[in-house]
Every structure is written in structure tokens, then in C-alpha cells.
Amino acid sequence: MKTPTFATLLSSCLVLSVSSSSAAFGQISEPNIKGILTVHQMTQGQLLWLKGRVGDGYYVGLNGQGQSCSLTVSVAIGQYSEDSRLGIKHVGGVKIAITSQKLSNAILNGQPIRSDEWNVTQTDQGVGIDGYIINGISLEEGFALNAKRRWVSWLLDEKAEPDCQ
Question: How far does the signal peptide extend, from start to end residue (predicted)?
């Protein structure tokens, strides 16, 4: 079975985003995008004033050699909440466009990514941005990519390997 090319996978992402939002399609069609991170569904939990979401996403991007690569990426999003509650529920996902080759390489290499260490904005406007949020994350929230999901993974040094072609 032939593995789909980056253009095919990116086209699939574009088709999915058109069905959810025509505004997102306009943002994704830019030529400077190095990759797209998509998480379709997340689990949200709140413990007192801490509110967060976790889920597994799929990153499709170009590596430093220009090869198209794909990788499963764990995503964690969180913030402090103004109200104190307890609860867990399923919520919608997120989509982030990556415009920096350095950030794309870091994601593909399985490096932990924290939103406060990169210039990720709400729009594609600006100089020197590493990526922008298409949907699913507010300005008040921080996020982490390639976060360790289980405590034992810290001991085993588990790391997903990208599938490149």
C-alpha cells in the first residue's frame, strides 16, 4: 500500500477544514505553512481552579530535508479557571498551523513544546511567528505538545518516531 504524500495529506486537512469553517480554509491555503497539527476530540477536566484538556493529535509537516512526515502528537491545554468545579467531559479539538521550520523540526523530533517558548499567535499576521492557532485554543490558555502522557514514559524514554517519505 502506498503511503500518501504531504500534498495529499495537506489537501485532506484542507477539505476537512472547509467543511468546518471557510475562514479556516483561507488561513490554511498560505504557502508558508510547514505543517498542520489537528486534534479532533479532547477530554476536558477541571479540578477546583485548574482546567485542562488532553488528547492525541496528528501532525503532518515537512522536515528539514523537505520530506513530508506525519506523527501522532499528545496535546495538553490548560489554564486557571475563575470558578471552582469538578468534572470531566469530551470536547472539540484544536487546529494549529506551523509556519516555522524550526518548530516543525522540533515537533517531528518529539521534543516537548510549550506555548510560552515559541511565538504562536491567534492570527497569521506578524513577523517571526512560529505558528498560529486556527481554532480551539484561547489567548488565556497555554499548551504543550509531545508531553509525556504516563509517568512510566519518563523512565522508559518513550518517543514517537515520524513516518517520513
Answer: 1-23
> Quick one: DSSP state of residue 64?
T
Task: Report the distance separating Cα 84 and Cα 75, nearest Å.
Answer: 24
130 — alpha (psi -120 to 50), left (phi > 0) or beta? alpha
Looking at per-residue pLDDT, the higher value among 24 and 100 belongs to 100
| 118 part of a folded domain | yes
Q: Using alpha carbons, select from 59, 57, 32, 29 the residue that is nearest to residue 43.
A: 57
Residue type, 126: G
Helices (H) and strands (E) in the chain, counts: 4, 7
pTM: 0.71
pLDDT tens digits, 20-70: 333 333 334 466 889 999 999 888 787 887 778 888 899 998 887 878 888
Residue 105 lies in a domain: yes
User: Which helix (DSSP H) or strand (DSSP E) does residue 108 occupy?
Assistant: helix 101-108
Domain total in the chain? 1
Q: DSSP assignment, residue 3?
A: P
